[in-house]
Amino acid sequence: MRIHKVHQLHKERLARSTKPFNARGANVNRCEYCQVHKDYCICEHQPNVQSNAAFLLIMFDTEVLKPSNTGKLIADLIPETHAYLWSRTEPNPDMLALLQDDSYQPFVIFPEEQIENKALVTNDIVVEEGKTPLFILLDGSWREAGRMYRKSTYLHQLPVLSFNSEHLSSYIMRKASKDHQLSTVEVASLVLDLFGEKENAKHLECWFELFREHYLYSKRPVKGAERGMGLKHLIDFRTELKESNQI
After folding, report:
1. Is the pTM of this model over 0.85?
2. Burial class (CB in 10 A: 0-12, 13-18, 19+), 124
């Protein structure tokens, strides 16, 4: 189990809470890292991959506390994933310094229809030589993400990567209001695919499937023989990946 920035942010946010965060399923005996029932913990299957991409998760205040949050799955997979809580009035200075770091090329991942300056919008990832793409995801509900972008002037001059995707969200834990609105981890998978890291994109899809499946088991415990195909799909993919890399 690799401890990452979202795990750390979760602990920091819990430490300064003045009262318990009563999310749905608050009484479930959860693993503190993967946030599913300890009987269905997926931590031993955490991916170990290499990536030339970096992600920045700007998380709404309570989003990091939600067991159903999928931003942590990106950090599980992509080694260089940064995570900060969003503040309207006091943005984290380390986060602002990261956005100004010349070794990165930032892209805000956001729907085109919510961007006033269409000149900022692109559908391609073109990275300057010697730079690492920094993909910025606003992690919260769609309404919260919209507010976060509008109120964060430091994002308004950055290029915006937008998808014209008809892909229907399979995110069934917190159903989005529109079919084309994807969960944070699904958007990250699309980003990795467009960036050319198709194996990592598929790996993230399989990891999300396993998390989603076991998260639902936390709500309705099932016997081993009745469990779904998430782990099998993940193992099959890793086996195929290993075999293809040996050719």
Report:
1. yes
2. exposed
